[in-house]
Known about the structure:
Layout: H1 3-17, H2 33-42, H3 57-78, H4 94-106, H5 111-118, H6 124-135, H7 137-155
Helix pairs in contact: 4-5, 4-6, 5-6
Amino acid sequence: MNRSALHARKEGQRFYSNEEWKGMExxxxxxxxxxxxxxxxxxxxxxDHPPRQIYDAAQKRDMSEVAVEATIERGLKRLKVDPxxxxxxRKSHPAKLMLATYLKTHYSxxxxxxxxxxxxxxxxxxxxxxxxxTDNRDLNRKYETFSRYLDIEYTV
Length: 156
């Protein structure tokens, strides 16, 4: 390996080991929309390395929220639960536990948001949903079937 490549590798390691950059993801643009647009103007699409895709965090959050809502709708339909009944069902109802576990494992959505949408009370219950399901053999079997159904419907 030549000296310049070795130096670049060391600089990259030093850059990514810096604590203030730990939360940053490669390929993301952090800042206002105007900043993003100005930055894109300076990138040359005809160069050897054009930008692949630049993600807008707000747009990604919005798309995730829409996907979560659609998944909840499909899940409630599969479990034969009316969305208006969510408020009246007990906090640890099997339908709520299964939906919360599925959302937690398939989407980057916080416990607080899941608990708000499913009317589950305190957000700490969402963190315990997976354990409550795996500890109950019948509920675990139902969850596996439910999860496969949502996974298949999602990919079709």
